């Protein structure tokens, strides 16, 4: 029974350390592994303990990966560009996960469609690609002079 409680304690120690970040978790794994090597003298118990460490490490690693996926999904910011009455540029940043007005949602979708069509045309139309590349090349060549 004590062995089971000890393994549960190791599992939770690694999980708690992972709440403070990957480096804290890694330090905990290294320290517990060193402790296991130095203090556990029976091979079957050492094997159980290393399996517990490995399982705990993998569970915390999956949590970090899921967290990374969730944060990349949440950050769906879009910048809408427009002009004021005097011709000045206005940049507005919106997060698509927010509750936006239908007008702004329509502008975001229109901008995405324009970007998609422009990219598609650039990739599939050799004349367009050459024209854009020539303009960009001339812009950078003028700056070097």
Would you give an account of this structure?
- The protein is mostly helical and 145 residues long.
- The chain has two domains: 2-73, no CATH class; 77-144, no CATH class.
- It contains five helices and two strands; from the N terminus they run αααββαα.
- The protein has helices at residues 2-18, 22-39, 43-74, 102-124, 126-144, and strands at 77-83, 89-95.
- The protein has a two-stranded antiparallel sheet with strand order 1-2.
- α2 runs antiparallel to α3 (43-74).
- The longest helix is centred in the middle third of the chain and has 32 residues, at 43-74.
* Beta strands, count: 2
Radius of gyration (Å) = 28 Å
Ranges where pLDDT stays below 50 over 5 or more residues in a row are: none
Q: How much beta, percentage-wise?
A: 5-15%
Mean of pLDDT = 86
Trace the largest sheet across and list its strands: 1-2
- Given helix and strand content, the structural type is mainly alpha
Helical residue percent band: over 70%
Shape: elongated
Taken together, the total number of domains comes to 2
| Measured distance between first and last alpha carbons | 79 Å
Please give the largest β-sheet. Answer: 2 strands, antiparallel
* Pattern of helices and strands: HHHEEHH
Number of helices: 5
């Amino acid at each position: 029974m004590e062995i089971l409680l000890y393994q549960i304690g190791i599992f939770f120690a690694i999980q708690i350390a992972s709440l403070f970040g990957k480096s804290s978790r890694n330090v905990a794994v290294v320290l517990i592994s060193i402790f296991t090597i130095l203090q556990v003298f029976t091979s079957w118990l050492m094997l159980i303990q290393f399996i517990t460490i490995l399982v705990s490490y993998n569970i915390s690693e999956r949590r970090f990966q899921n967290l990374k996926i969730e944060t990349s999904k949440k950050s769906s910011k879009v910048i809408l560009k427009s002009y004021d009455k005097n011709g000045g540029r206005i940049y507005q940043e919106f997060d698509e996960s927010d509750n936006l007005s239908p007008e702004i949602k329509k502008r975001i979708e229109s901008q995405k469609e324009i970007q998609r069509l422009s990219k598609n045309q650039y990739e599939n139309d050799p004349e367009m690609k050459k024209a854009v590349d020539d303009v960009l090349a001339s812009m950078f060549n003028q700056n070097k002079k």
